[in-house]
User: Fold these one by one.
Assistant:
Number 1:
Amino acid sequence: MTDYVDGYCERVGPGLWGEPLNSLGNVSLLVAAVLVWRLAKGDRAGRVLAGLIGVVFVASAVFHLLATRWAAVADSVAILGFVLVYAVLFAREFWSRRHAWVAAPVYLALTVGTALLGGGLYLSMLIALGVFAAVLAFARDAYWTHFAVAGAIFALSLSLRAVDRDVCDYVPAGTHFLWHLLNGVVLYLVSRTLVLRNRP
């Protein structure tokens, strides 16, 4: 076992620049945070989402620079934090402001369930996007297409993350950096949707 996290094709040793593409790919998250912040203007929920995307950017960048286990935990916690807040905001805007808090424990239960089945932290996010799209489509809410597109992009992103170690012999840099690039797009799209929904 190494004293650093060696989980990606690109990481072949310790050091700040052991994963240059994975580290630089996080810029997509920073761009998403800035764009959502500017779009939100006076929308408090939008500004909160922009701030949380910024936290995800910092946590992920630190993890891929340092490759330590504590940074890996911080990375996962930052992502989970964004999704829990988003689930509550989604429920508030598209379902019930009074009972929106229920979305957080429901999502946590889904995450635990998928993790126990071997799906890890991210399968529940893909399922949630699918549920959001399906619920809104059933309600004939035009915003369902936003979540369908975000879900399709995230499915591709998750696939690229999953095959990273399998393609090392053919693509030495791996595919994990594409996971970062696409996730910036996904977080922007879903945050933009709530900002637009909030506008009079």
Number 2:
Amino acid sequence: MIPPSPLPETEPPHDCPRCPRLVALRQELRVEYPDWWNAPVPAFGDPDAWLGIIGLAPGKHGANRTGRPFTGDFAGDLMFATLAKFGFTDGNYESRADDGLQLHGAIIVNSVKCLPPENKPTPEEARTCRPFAEAQVDALPYARIFIALGQIAHQSAVKILGGKLPKCRFGHLAEHRMPDGRVLIDSYHCSRYNQNTGRLTAEMFEAVFARALELRGTV
């Protein structure tokens, strides 16, 4: 059972036709794995969140399979362990969309809603999908701090939040104040590759959330 979107009016349709390459992959996987979600993955979390987490796109064996962001793959283990450590979770993460886990104070929104081949959306696909993420960010009345996971998510987040990319360079723990005062904090993505190569450690990831907590109430 997939939990309902906290922002249902902002989601793309189940069979969104906007990106031909992503549609083709979705159709292939629906044949190969008919029990998987294989559709645009909805946002997950608290619609009254003060912290917005902007991810890249669903992972093949994670969100694309389970229907919930960061659920069921290696990246999700670190994501939800970190959210739990900082008090954002209610319930236990069990790598299933029906594990009953809830988020309080945080919400996860992907910059690209559908699984891209090799986890790499094209710039055109990111642009085409951006209106959905933009609508979701706009629907968060209390979110003043955002975390972008990786450079592609960073680029989308800066544009969604009204910033200028030449002035906002991506870097782990880099902070960017947007024209309306909202703050974007960058993090390397918590992917298996980044963790296995040591580019991102649990301590580095936790430092991003610790900084977000420090900034809460000041922006």
